[in-house]
């Protein structure tokens, strides 16, 4: 099994630099020179490196998963492909950072909240995109209490820097 130290040695960089190259993080703003990253990735591919995502989740205390949350299923979602297009777009954007997505929904707000709690507690998901708006939202209140990041810059009136896409 190829280790981070093996890659760093082959690329002629420190293990910290190799780690940053292999694990870009849009949330913390940890960036690396594009040429250095390309060189490290080339060496990793040459050596046959494959990340151990379970080990990464254990060491980081979080997974490379973005929770995508729909409101309760009211029957409107089934006939509307907006959500599907959003899922494809989100997945395409986060794949660049070695992230994947997981969906949370339900038939009512209690089920939606329970599914979000499973993502937070069970899979250590820290980043969430909410594909709905609602006053006094129990999901966003829960996520803020747990100190998770919400990507909600697209909401009306919100133009803050997005923790997911940086916009």
Question: Can you lay out the helices and strands and say which pair or pack?
Answer:
Layout: H1 4-11, H2 15-22, H3 34-47, H4 53-60, E1 65-69, H5 82-95, E2 100-104, H6 109-122, E3 127-130, H7 138-145, E4 149-151
Helix pairs in contact: 1-2, 1-3, 2-3, 6-7
Spatial sequence of strands, sheet with the most strands? 2-1-3-4
Low-confidence stretches: 153-163
Largest sheet: 4 strands, parallel
Give the number of DSSP strands.
Answer: 4
- Given this structure, which CATH class of the largest domain is correct? Alpha Beta
What fold name stands as the CATH topology of the largest domain? Rossmann fold
- Tell me roughly what share of residues is in helical segments: 40-55%
CATH architectural label of the largest domain: 3-Layer(aba) Sandwich
Provide a concise account of the structure shown.
The protein has about 170 residues and is an alpha/beta fold.
What does this protein structure show overall?
Mean pLDDT is 78; it is low at 153-163. This protein is α/β, with parallel strands linked by helices. The termini are far apart. The chain has a 4-stranded parallel sheet, with helices on both faces. The chain folds into 2 domains: 4-51, Orthogonal Bundle (434 Repressor (Amino-terminal Domain)), CATH 1.10.260; 60-151, Rossmann fold, CATH 3.40.50.2300. 19% of the residues are buried. The protein has helices at residues 4-11, 15-22, 34-47, 53-60, 82-95, 109-122, 138-145, and strands at residues 65-69, 100-104, 127-130, 149-151. β3, α7 and β4 form a beta-alpha-beta unit.
């Amino acid at each position: 099994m190829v280790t981070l130290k093996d890659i760093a040695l082959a690329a002629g960089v420190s293990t910290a630099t190799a780690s940053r190259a292999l694990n870009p993080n849009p949330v913390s703003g940890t960036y690396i020179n594009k040429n250095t990253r390309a060189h490290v990735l080339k060496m990793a591919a040459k050596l046959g490196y494959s990340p151990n995502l379970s080990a990464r989740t254990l060491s980081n205390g979080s997974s490379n998963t973005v929770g995508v949350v729909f409101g309760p299923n009211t029957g409107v979602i089934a006939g509307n492909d907006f959500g599907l297009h959003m899922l494809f777009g989100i997945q395409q954007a986060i794949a660049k950072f070695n992230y994947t997505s997981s969906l949370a929904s339900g038939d009512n707000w209690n089920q939606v909240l329970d599914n979000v709690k499973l993502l937070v507690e069970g899979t250590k998901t820290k980043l969430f995109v909410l594909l709905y708006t609602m006053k006094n939202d129990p999901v966003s209140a829960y996520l803020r209490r747990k100190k998770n990041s919400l990507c909600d810059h697209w909401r009306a009136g919100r133009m803050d820097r997005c923790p997911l896409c940086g916009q």
